[in-house]
Amino acid sequence: AASGTVTASQVDSLVQRHAPLCMRSLCDSLKLDHHLKHDGRLQYGLFIKGMGLSVDEALMYWKSAFSNITLDKFQKDYAYNVRYNYGLEGKRTNYSPYSCSKIIGNNPPSATENHGCPFRHFSPSNLEARLLRDNIGRTHVDQILQLSRDRHYQLACTKHFEVTHPQDKTRQDPIEHPNQYYEASKSLDEE
Ligand code: SF4
Fold this sequence. Notes:
Order of helices and strands: HHHHHHHHHHHH
Bound molecules: iron/sulfur cluster
Radius of gyration: 17 Å
Helix content: 55-70%
Oligomer: single chain
Number of domains: 2
């Protein structure tokens, strides 16, 4: 989506409603811990940039999410990273949000990190609990778990999209990018 179409205050509800599990999971951790580690900030920060958040709104979003630190510390330690994602610092590259294959193939999260793809990096029992918590029916949960076990992570995510968007009558292309998932979900709302 074009930059400037989403404001900081809209991010959380849009993510919870339309984002794939990887990003909802990062959003949950951010709310819970008022912090995200470096790789999570990159994965999630570029995703919300792709949603249409301008750099100023992004700075506002991260500042209020990191509510346990002073403004001074935020400016010193984190504002640079946010501006960097937008190509305003360092190498001045206007970075793109990560694709699924990049997220799945990148360095896996340690026990204290939350980046990555849930279909690839969650333990089977965590993934199962998360899907059940989202009110996905038993049969569908089993199908998604099987696809993940068979290493068809993006197909598991595509299945997740299908069962959580039953109003979608067209067949979704396989999910290859978190922002593709988001835009497809959002467009169903706008129909
Ligand atoms: Fe996110 Fe892609 Fe994994 Fe889906 S398949 S959860 S969009 S990384």
